[in-house]
Amino acid sequence: MMIRMIPIASVMGLLALTACSASNVATFTSYPTPDKNLDLAALNVAHLKTLTVGQSREEVLERMQADPVEGCIKWGWSTWAQIQRAMGWLPCEKREVIRSPYQTQTLEQGGMRYEVLFYYTGGVDAEGMISNKQLTPVIIENGKLSGWGWEHPLAQQFLQPRAPTDQAGDLNNRAVSFRSQGRYAEAEPLFRQALDITERAKGAEHLDVAIILNNLGELYYVQGRYAEAEPLYQRALAIKEKVLGPDDLGLATTLENYAALLARTNREDQATTLAARAKLIRAKHE
User: Fold this and answer.
1) Alpha-carbon distance 9 to 72, whole Å?
2) Looking at per-residue confidence, does 170 or 54 come out higher?
3) In CATH, 164-284 is 1.25.40.10
4) Which pLDDT belongs to residue 35?
């Protein structure tokens, strides 16, 4: 069988076209340039240094004032996205306006009213999401600043108890990060633990199960473990079709991943069929 080689110039041209297309699902930033949200984080850190205990809530808000920015909260992790990373691009699938404060929470205890203002102060998790680790709490007690930072005695009371599914999300995110770094042996048990927790908490046919199955399948794919990856892609695809319907955009990534596996294992006809279906789905959502 003859193997057709695609010229590198063609690949580069396709990447450039994809990156510049306004209708494409993902947008791209040059690697490793950090996203705009990091600029906001640096500004918030600088503003925190101007605070003094006892300041009024209004003064705190004025000192911490910052224009909102649009930052990435979900990176692309498909096989195609990893190829794009190797070519020097960061594919961002979902962007969000990040405001200051990022979120707020209140607590009434012993006749006192407490309010916490969470400010984004740096970093993102493995998928670009912003969690408590990337936020700094500023605590307002009866309208006055009583302190800031997670070391504050009241700060931990503003954290909601973590559900098993939250733990599964963290495990999945860490595994995705390890996979992107080539730390495959560390990623696999985390994916499997996340899958087990999610299946027990949400059921075997939940959409979150499909997401983890797809991620684990990608881990096996990049290691050349095609026989182990294929049933995971098949199951992920079946769940997504059942939950989302046959034409939902959420199916496209799994279809593309499965098509890549089929092509790699010399099943070009099946690969072409799935790739064409994924392309059609994306076209419907442009």
Assistant:
1) 29
2) 54
3) yes
4) 54
pTM attached to this predicted model: 0.48
pLDDT band at 33 (very low <50, low <70, confident <90, very high): very low
Q: Residue 259 is encoded by which pair of tokens?
A: 């098509």
Would you kindly state where each structural domain of the chain is located, as residue ranges? 8-158, 164-284
Contact 55/148 with Cβ under 8 angstroms?
A: no
